[in-house]
Amino acid sequence: MFGDPDFSEPQQNEPSKGACRKCGYVGHLTYQCRNLIKLKSQKDVVIDISSTSSESETDTPIVAEEKKKLSSLMKKKKRKERKEKRKERAKNLDKDEKKSRKESKSRHDGKHYKEHKKKKTEKVTSKRTEKVSQQGSSGKRTLNVQQENHRNEQTVAKKKKPDKLSSEQFLPESDASDLFVCGVGDMGQLGLGDDVRECHKFRRVKFNDSNVKIRMVAAGGCHSLVLTDKNEVLSCGCNDEGALGRAVFEDDQEVDEDCTFAKVQFDQEDLNQHGEIAMISAGDSHGAALTVNGSVFIWGRFRGKNGALGLMVDQKTNKVISQSKTPVLLLSYKNHKIVKISSGCNHLMCLDEFGKVWTIGDGSDGQLGRIFRFDFDLESIRVTR
User: Fold this and answer.
1) For bias kind Polar residues, which ranges apply (predicted)?
2) What is the pTM of this model?
3) What's the CA gap between 179 and 189, in Å, rounded?
4) Tens digit of pLDDT for each residue in 275-313?
């Protein structure tokens, strides 16, 4: 019953369940079959992978195992080949990097670096800047070389100083013309006379000289300034703080010159030295004028929150000028050449030729654009006799 297995062909066409798949014998399993042992002992077993399908039903277990071994061997070979190729590429890259490093070191070392730089510049200039034209048919050729060094142009442009400003850039381009006014004139600021206190429509102003033409107008708080084509400054309106820049008749006189335009009293020597008037501006109680050379004259008074502030500090005496009824030199063109002036309510701003702004007046609300050094906050004190 438990004898040697019979290696003859099985009688059944299909092996029963639990029988050997190789020989179909029920007494042992497939891994115990002697046929498998004999096949394993054979060394010269050749399997064609292309002709047989992987792990098909007709293949024996031994054939499937051999196929797996061969496929694993092929995969290992491919991996080795890939690794070798990668190593070769890495070696080539390392060689190229070493060469480039050596070249860069040699370039940055003294003479080699300078020579390399010269070669580069020569190549660029030869490509971009040389334009060759051939003239003549007798074999004579003339070379017209136009050299344009862009780098030199850029460096020269950087070294150039900024263009200076001039007062001509800020002057009106239109020609001088007549003056027309309207509004409230209770202080005589319209220049229409003492009788006209209010004007709802524009009216033409009549001057003493009928040939006078106006180039510029500046409106203050209760006074007006105009610049004529003859570079003269005329003023009218309220003169309580000296804003008109001239003396006026008292109330006892028959004619009130506050209500008509009259000349601002400039010193002729100052005008000869600093030039004619080119620009004017007006604030609440002050007026200012700019000369052609770049000097600034001012008159009237600045007022602060707590009353009169003064006008300026005299540079010669270092004393505060509280009020001036005639123009006084504020800035000289010898120190700072001014090209434009502009007045606020109680401050004046001056722009010089280099673009810097100079300010003077009341700065309690930050209108001077700088730290206000003085504090004028006063306390009320009861005064007894």
Assistant:
1) 132-147
2) 0.55
3) 13
4) 999 999 999 999 999 999 999 999 999 888 776 677 777
